[in-house]
Specification:
The chain is mostly helical and 366 residues long. It contains 15 helices and no strands.
Amino acid sequence: MTNSQKISPRQAIFLLSLSRISIVLLWFHFSNQDVWITEIIALFYIAIFCTPLLFLSKQFANLTPIEYLPIITGKLVGKILGALYFGFFLFVATMDLSLFDNILKPINFPETPDYAIVLLALITCAYGANKGLECIARTTEIFVPQILTIIVLYATLQIPDMDFKVFLPILADSTFSEINFQSFNIAAGIHEIIILAMLVPSINKKETPNMIFFWAIILITVFSLIIIVPTLAGLGLELSQKTFDPYYLFIKQINIYDFITRIEFFIVGAWNIGMFVKISLFLYLATISLVQVLGLRKRKVLIIPLAIVLFITALKTNILKSVIVFHIIEYYVPYINLIFMFVIPVVALVMFFLKKTINAKSNCNS
């Protein structure tokens, strides 16, 4: 299947950035006061983890991983790997749906049953996936600048009440191995490189994936720090660790001369937009990957069945329980991401070079 929908490099950057920033807005684990350092060191690990997929995307600029893996590994193995990527996209969509329910329901809709929130979210996301990549990308072009502006505004308004002494002394509670382990986990949690690899054939201007990913990671890192640092300085380490939504609690404290208060509804809007865009995107990627694995012609007929699968999975398992979803996100998701963003691409890259070497020797001998 050839994807006719095209997006601009800027829209691709916004999609990747919102995908990660929306998660940081909803939930972030504050291990200690040095968490801001781990965000910076994580850039080193991100560069390592993402190199194989970036290289393959440059070599196969007109193909998605689902399409070029059979070329590298053979048809059968490639189809199996493509099916695994399809499962990964559904898994991420399910986890994000559960995270969204666990954050939004206690704050805004405590009496609303889970099935109503999940159903409403899936109807919206299925509509976005049905409209396709261009619609999802245009949504980010409209709302991402506004969301980033709101994040900066919140941080600026709370500066007078921040206590930056919470960051001192630097590295007092962290060892070198702990800092690196936390940075490793942060980097492994950023699966946006997989999104980019799937989107490369749909980007209308042939800028290198490297530059698109570079600017997306810069945006993600800068605005993650603008979220994390003020939250920690405003709430303190102990409160940031105890609450499951520290950024929301931080925003609720904003009070401008006892006149402007309760401005947290802006961030609730950002949560909704960010998660709807991300779940819509992963539902779209799931349909694209399944079409390419099975060699189907029509993508849209898969959207409703896959949305039903997500709905049943969310309600008939324990995934909507906060204890379970946060445990999975913190302890399992980074390693699951690592399989698809690094391990499989590394194996494919080794096979790519082996085939290239063998073919070169065969040409020389002939």
